[in-house]
Amino acid sequence: MESNGATNGTRSRRYALAAIVAALGVLTAGILLEVLGTILFALTAAYVLMPVQRWFVRRGFTEWTGAAAATGVGFVVVVAVFSPIILTLYVNVDEIVDIVEGLPPEIPIAAFDVTYMIDVAEVQTFAVDFLTSATISLLSALPVLAIKFALFVILLFALVLKGDEAARAAIAPVPHGYRDIVDALATRARETLYAIYVLQLATSVATLFIAYPLFWALGYEIPFTLALIAAILQFVPIIGPSLLVLPIAGYHVVSGELVAAVLVGVLGIVLVAWLPDIAVRPRLARRSAGLPGSLYFVGFTGGLFTLGVIGIVVGPLIVAVFVEAVDLLADEVNGDADVADLLDPDADDSATQSLERTSDTEVSEPDTEATYEESGSPSAEH
After folding, report:
1. What is the pTM of this model?
2. CB-based burial of residue 226 (10 Å sphere; 0-12 exposed, 13-18 middle, 19+ buried)?
3. pLDDT tens digits for the chain (382 residues)?
4. In this structure, is residue 87 part of a structural domain?
5. What whole-number distance in Å separates Cα of residue 249 and Cα of residue 264?
6. Domain count, the chain
7. How far, CA to CA in Å, does 349 sit from each of 343, 344, 353?
């Protein structure tokens, strides 16, 4: 009895500490709301970089130096991804504005021997104002972005170094019978983050290296800018770089350059939008989450519109974990039964009886263990 009381006291203490941590976490999130996106970005990046840190440790690094090396890898990747975007906006924004302003104010559309004129002047004005204001806002926010980037690096190092301790603390209050659920959700989260960071990033890099020579060969004045935009759009599921290729082809059609429209349309869709997916994705997809493209698109767009840029990562992650939780619930309740079995009332009654027998067995097992503990072991009696 004393042993059971001690066990219950330990569990109550764990639950109380877990509740305190959760409450303080909510309070901390409210206080750090302005940098919450940076913190979420560091959390997800650390989750991906922890295996990198363990890889360095297996090769002779200490825990601290391995975490520093893994953080350095993350630092280089972030700089390599975001610095071209900032430099491109700063250097080529005037050329992009000139291209937008060079579009004809009206676009003729012919159908059934009738020509309709579509006024695009307002769209041009909106696009020019958006590009100008976005560039000014980005440049004015550079000091704040620099501070957030420093916070990201420091937090990333701390999470990579102490990630195992944090994971153990998070799992400790969970009863042993439910830790398989935590493991399944954590596995799905890790695979989803791998798919977002590693798989999508590799595909985007391949898109950049393919798109740049293509746009250069087709004679565009800003081939690197167009290639960079195509690489960024690779993060948009399903449609991806076609969001860039199709408007460029449409621009050539409006300008009467049908040959150029066909060239950039066909080569752009095949080489820029399609080739990186079939060349890179199958080689790295074995560790991806296997989330359907439609659900990934829902998470991407919903997260982007709700949370901003960080939603590109958090949105698909939440959707993937939710889908995994639904699968676990379905397996727990329905097992291997198909739809016909689930709709059969007799099958439902038998499943209910089986579940009741399983519950009775689970309830009786702790009683047996408790009886054995109270009676003492044979060696103790002697």
Report:
1. 0.64
2. buried
3. 556 656 666 667 777 877 887 888 788 878 877 787 888 888 888 888 888 898 999 988 998 999 999 999 989 888 887 877 777 767 777 777 776 666 666 666 655 566 666 666 666 677 777 777 777 777 777 788 888 889 989 999 998 888 778 778 777 777 778 888 888 888 888 888 887 777 778 888 888 899 989 989 888 888 888 888 888 888 777 778 888 888 888 878 877 788 888 888 888 888 888 888 777 766 665 555 566 767 777 888 888 888 777 888 888 888 888 888 888 888 877 766 665 665 666 555 555 555 455 555 544 444 444 443 444 444 444 3
4. yes
5. 6
6. 1
7. 11, 9, 6
Residue 26 falls inside a structural domain: yes
* DSSP per position, 105-173: SEEEEEETTEEEEEE-HHHHHHHHHHHHHHHHHHHHTHHHHHHHHHHHHHHHHHHHHHHHHHHHHHHTT
Is residue 186 in a domain?
A: no
Which residue segment(s) compose the domain that 32 sits in? 8-173
Could you tell me if residue 262 is inside a domain?
no
107-141 burial, b if ≥16 CB within 10 A, otherwise e? Answer: beeeeeeeeeeeebeeebeebeeebeeebeeeeee
